[in-house]
Design goal:
The chain has 447 residues and is mostly beta strands. It has helices at residues 39-42, 47-53, 83-87, 281-286; strands at residues 2-3, 22-27, 35-38, 55-58, 66-69, 74-77, 94-101, 106-115, 123-124, 128-134, 142-144, 148-149, 158-164, 169-175, 181-187, 202-211, 218-228, 236-237, 241-247, 255-258, 261-262, 273-276, 287-289, 295-298, 309-317, 323-333, 341-347, 351-352, 360-367, 377-382, 387-393, 396-401, 412-421, 428-438. The chain has 4 domains: 2-115, Immunoglobulin-like (Sandwich), CATH 2.60.40.60; 123-228, Cadherins (Immunoglobulin-like); 236-333, Immunoglobulin-like (Sandwich), CATH 2.60.40.60; 341-438, Cadherins (Immunoglobulin-like). A hairpin with a 5-residue loop joins strand 14 and strand 15. It is elongated. Residues 1-20 form the signal peptide.
């Protein structure tokens, strides 16, 4: 049957250090029950022992993604896994889990890489795009276009853009700071309102985004170019890039930064309004820019443990439709707002009173989602008992017997595990352990 318990999966990026004793890979979107790996064979585990003593899979995510087949020792999928839902923009999607063989009091660590399939086509947030360009705009002028989004990764992700529709325009693709592709419309030939092609003062183009899958998938947007009368000068930002930092406990309404652009034109052509260029919903939920002043404000609470920084692209648009862009990097600063979390992975109770000193009686996991000193944790046992705690690896502890037990003196021992972080002020958590002592025949009858 399926043995499911206490799932603990952690998403990790590709740059993290190797963690597991076993590493498997499985494509996303595989049906429930798909084979992942032969854990029993790869760990040289005895199947009868697994069946008699039982095993547990520990996985910290809210959803159980894997199960272990007790009769075969096979690791299989317990749910259909959507890589894009789990990892979003993470290049390498890895789930971690632990297998505990109860009879051995042994933990085996497993990593499963979720590989991408080309199940998403590139798409534009809006299918109909519009640009306003003055008839006096010089050939070679560039106009940023909306970017397409493809949640797949690697070759299956967005690879190129194509433009079709009119000889007056061409396409240029620039590399963004994160390696993303940013399409720009380039004016190849001078515009003339009196030409027959522009008698309605508009041009229609098709912008196509193509991924690298086999076969490739694509998405399109209709681009309408409105040719306007002269607006000679686009807005210019005081800086191309801005940087600032904000504590994660900053209240909504806090001012993040003020950006400023100027325009050498006069009248309505010089009136500038500010806004965000196309951005993920998470960014638009957190921040807002005042259209008239360029002041960026926080509108939803931050969480350092969720996102440590944001890149905002602010657009300045003048009354004639010309635009400029600047980037704002917002660093989120950690505060000590998370107490350590204690997880009792396994308890061996009762323990024979003749168990030798050093016998492992419990396995614990401790973590703190803060960073730096706020996330550094030390643990201790509180209570009178012949027990001690030793660290087996980062965040993992064993509770062992410190000396011989005597059931006739104490039939059970109660201790409290205390975990404290090194933040200021320090936060702590507690967990109780109850250890029963079983009798052995170590006393002769006495008259």
């Amino acid at each position: 049957g399926w043995d499911r318990a206490l799932l603990w999966c952690v998403l990790v990026a590709a740059w993290e250090a190797a963690w597991g004793q076993l590493r498997y890979s499985v494509p996303e979107e595989m049906p429930k029950g798909s084979f992942v790996g032969d854990v029993a064979k790869d760990l040289a585990l005895d199947l009868p022992t697994l069946h008699d003593h039982g095993v547990r899979i520990i996985d910290r995510s809210r959803t159980q993604y894997f199960a272990l087949h007790g009769k075969t020792g096979h690791l299989v999928t317990a749910e259909r896994i959507d890589r894009e839902q789990l990892c979003e923009s993470v290049q390498q999607c890895v789930l971690r889990c632990e297998v505990i063989v109860k009879g051995e009091m042994q933990i085996y660590r497993i990593e499963v890489e979720i590989t991408d399939i080309n199940d998403n086509a590139p798409s534009f947030k809006e299918r109909d795009l519009e640009e306003r360009i003055s008839e006096t705009t010089a050939p070679g002028s560039r106009f940023p276009l909306a970017e397409a989004h493809d949640p797949d990764v690697g070759r299956n992700s967005l690879q190129r853009y194509e433009l079709s529709g009119d000889e007056h325009f061409s396409l240029s693709v620039q590399a963004g700071p994160g390696g993303d592709q940013r399409p720009e419309l380039v004016l190849a030939k001078a515009l003339d309102r009196e030409e027959a092609a522009f008698h309605e003062l508009s041009v229609r183009l098709v912008l196509t985004a193509v991924d690298g899958g086999d076969p490739p998938r694509s998405g399109t947007a209709q681009l309408c170019i409105n040719v306007t009368d002269a607006n000679d000068n686009p807005p210019v930002f005081a800086h191309d890039r801005y940087g600032t930092s904000l504590r994660e406990d900053a209240p909504p309404g806090s001012t993040v930064l003020n950006v400023s652009a100027s325009d050498a034109d006069a009248g309505t052509n010089a009136r500038i309004t500010y806004g965000f260029q196309e951005a993920p919903a998470k960014v638009l939920q957190k921040f807002v820019v005042e259209a008239e002043s360029g002041t960026i404000r926080l509108q939803e609470a931050l969480d350092f443990e969720d996102t440590r920084g944001y890149t905002l692209v602010v657009e300045a648009r003048d009354g004639g439709g010309l635009v400029a862009h600047c980037e704002v990097e917002v660093e989120v600063l950690d505060v000590n707002d998370n107490a350590p979390e204690i997880t009792v992975s396994s308890v061996s109770s009762p323990v024979p009173e003749d168990a030798p000193a050093g016998t492992v009686v419990a396995l614990l996991k401790v973590r703190d989602r803060d960073s730096g000193e706020n996330g550094q944790v030390w643990c201790e046992l509180s209570g009178e008992a012949p027990l001690s705690m030793v660290s087996s690896s980062v965040g993992s502890y064993k509770v062992v017997t410190a000396s011989a037990l005597d059931r006739e003196e104490a039939s059970e021992h109660r201790v409290t595990v205390v975990a404290r972080d090194r933040g200021s002020p320090s936060l702590s958590s507690r967990a109780s352990l109850v250890l029963e002592v079983s009798d052995v025949n170590d006393n002769a009858p006495v008259f």
